[in-house]
Write a structure and sequence with these properties.
The protein is an alpha/beta fold and 378 residues long. The chain has 15 helices and 13 strands. Strands 2-8-7-6-5-3-4 form a seven-stranded mixed β-sheet, sandwiched between helices. It has a four-stranded antiparallel β-sheet with strand order 9-10-13-12. The longest helix has 16 residues, at 283-298. The protein binds 4'-deoxy-4'-aminopyridoxal-5'-phosphate (PMP) and glutamine. Keywords: Aminotransferase, Pyridoxal phosphate, Transferase. Its cofactor is pyridoxal 5'-phosphate. It comes from Ramlibacter rhizophilus.
């Protein structure tokens, strides 16, 4: 059988988690919390099930959840999305992104991604029959390079996928970055898929710069987020997308035939839980403390810490520790030191000249301490 995705193997996250579990290593590779969610959220889902919310919900999602999402976005980003026609609940951000790509990109179109990028984007674009155009972020500092983005824009550009806070680099776009993007796209009809799954993890008092805050971007954007990240329930696979009605109409044409709907009791439970904004408002401080604990623990090692402005990731430069490539180093680290990490090369096409690996600090303090103890040998 001729593969539709010949360059694709098993994702690095699956590979490293499997290896970590086989070897009993501390798994700071794949991004997921090793602690439980708020028991009130579990109660809310259980209540929803007992209340009989166990059949198909409306295709676009449970109305109360869509209303709660609209209220949260309005409170944070000062833009009102109509829950009826502008918000859809998805099976995680992963489904939101591929559905948006399939809805807008076709053969002959180009879709820009900024390298390094989350590993599903490029295969998503290829499955749509469109051509991915990889534009590098600035070397070492991972900032958007607007001259290179401008040079990549052309008559065939259908969309650009942006991601802030950024996986894997843990950088976050500034207001000026968003204004530059808005200005650059103003004369075009290029759409934006804005992956904002780490919207509630921005540190040091900075604010998340959602595309929803900017009129010119919001008008052309699918804004994607994920309850898995925000409420520590990555296994639930519930997320959402917000977009202006004409874009959402196209999104739903695809959504109804790839998942149709997302599980009902979780949606009801999430809607009830979202009535209290504290869980997402408290998240930056919660993760900043873990980030700082992890950074302080590494300060004495020869791993060079890169900035972590947002997300639950910390990248380190391994040059002073090892001659190995990023991926060989991650295998060695898992086997010999007992800590799993993710090589940045997994997020690139060809061509990168740095030696950086990513750790996830969404872990219990004792997990982080145990990893730090092992890493202190480096
Ligand atoms: N985008 C980014 C940048 C991510 O890091 C992730 C999760 N690792 C996703 C999308 C997918 O989110 P979900 O688990 O909700 O499908
Ligand atoms: N998004 C998570 C990460 O970057 C992993 C999700 C997955 O395993 N697909 O680590």
């Amino acid at each position: 059988l001729a593969s539709k995705l010949p360059a694709v193997g098993t994702t690095i996250f699956t590979v490293m988690s499997q290896l970590a579990s086989e070897l009993g290593a501390v798994n700071l590779g794949q991004g997921f919390p090793d602690f439980d969610c708020d028991p009130r959220l579990l109660d809310a889902v259980n209540e929803a099930m007992r209340d009989g919310h166990n059949q198909y919900p409306p295709m676009a999602g449970v109305p109360a959840l869509r209303e709660a999402i609209a209220a949260k976005m309005e409170a944070l980003y000062r833009r009102r999305y109509d829950p009826l026609g502008e918000i859809t609940v998805t099976a995680g951000a992963t489904q939101a992104i591929i559905t948006a790509v399939l809805a807008v990109a076709r053969a002959g179109d180009e879709v820009i991604v900024l390298d390094p990028c989350y590993d599903s984007y490029v295969p998503n674009i290829e499955l749509a029959g469109a051509t991915p155009v990889r534009v590098p972020l600035t070397p070492h500092s991972f900032r958007p390079d607007f001259d290179r983005i401008a040079a990549a824009l052309g008559p065939r550009t259908r969309a650009i996928i942006v991601n802030t806070p950024h996986n894997p680099s843990a950088t976050a776009w500034t207001r000026e970055d968003m204004l530059r993007l808005q200005e650059l796209l103003a004369p075009t009809d290029v759409l934006v898929i804005s992956d904002e799954v780490y919207e509630h993890m921005v540190f040091d008092g900075c604010e998340h710069q959602s595309a929803a805050r900017f009129d010119g971007l919001a008008a052309r954007s699918f804004i994607v987020s994920s309850f898995g990240k925000t409420y520590h329930v990555t296994g639930w696979k519930v997320g959402y997308v917000a977009a202006p009605a004409p874009l959402m109409a196209e999104f739903r044409k695809v959504h109804q035939f790839n998942v149709f709907t997302v599980n009902t009791p979780m949606q009801h439970g999430l809607a009830r839980y979202m009535a209290d904004p504290r869980p997402h408002l408290d998240l930056p401080a919660f993760y900043q403390r873990k980030r700082d604990l992890f950074r302080q623990g590494l300060a004495g090692s020869r791993l060079r810490l890169l900035p972590s402005e947002g997300s639950y990731f910390q990248c380190v430069d391994i040059s002073a520790v090892s001659e190995l490539s990023e991926s060989e180093f991650c295998l060695w680290l898992t086997r010999e030191i007992g800590v799993a990490a993710i090589p940045l090369s997994a997020f690139y096409g060809n061509g990168f000249d740095q030696r950086v690996v990513r750790f996830c600090f969404a872990k219990r303090d004792e997990t982080l301490r145990s990893a730090l103890e092992r890493l202190s040998r480096l």
